[in-house]
Amino acid sequence: MDIINSIHTNLISRKKEFFGNKPFPYIILDDFLEKNYFQLLEKQISKNDYLKKGKTFNSDLELNKKISLNTDLPEIISNITNVLNSNDWLEVLKSLTDIQSLKSTKVGNTKLANYHEMGSDGFLGSHVDHSLDPDTGRPHVLNIILYLSSEWKEEFGGATLLFNKNGRKVKAQITYKKNRAVIFLHTPYSFHGVEKLNNNFEIKRKSLYVDYYSETLEPFNHINLDFPNNWFSHGTTFVLPKTSDYLKLKNWRYTKSLLMYNINRVKTSFIL
Ligand SMILES: [Fe+2]
Known about the structure:
Helices cover 22% and strands 24% of the residues. It is α+β, with helices and mostly antiparallel strands. It has a single domain (6-271), classed as Jelly Rolls (Sandwich). Strands 1, 2, 3, 4, 5, 6, 7, 8, 9, 10, 11 and 12 form a twelve-stranded antiparallel beta sheet that branches. The protein is globular, with a radius of gyration of 18 Å. Fe (ii) ion (FE2) binds next to loops.
């Protein structure tokens, strides 16, 4: 059975749209998985709890979020991550992004969780992800997120939010919709997050996430962006809502990562 809908296996015609979207390049692919595969997936994930061995986040910026860090993702999900890491799909992404050195990662679900669930009132604040492949140290350059919950309604919230270059203003909002995929360029300035979920009677916001890396340390040189197109190293870095929040002891790890982020950002701009 095919997994990815054949209408999305050639994205050259979407390239202009991808690069034209703001605040940074992205595209939305509806009905991403083949109808039959998605129906099978829907049936299986609605009756299972895959996150028994997962990690729970419950801070102000990562509220009611769970990620799976176990290697044994069910086959119905790992089949999808395998396809998204395959050479064929990499070629599709290269033709969309013109990043010819694009690579998948061998890290797998143990370090970089692919499957996520967010519960009632959940929220994920404005952030940029890790900048390096944990194994190879290569730059993180692209993300795909796939929305899986078929019973989701728009009024539950949970849109993916894309922010301006300092992560403070929402510039684009991608509504959560079943079987919708979003591909976006992951630069050090690609701040993103999840809109706060409303109370939705325990229906989970389920999603699948796969990231991609580049062989070169200058992956964005060919792209015109509304912010500097250099890459630099940083950890997952969140933007806190108010400046005074950085002074709170409980937020120390967020303050530290933002400090490191800014040091590396400034250092790189001097080198250029
Ligand atoms: Fe993220």
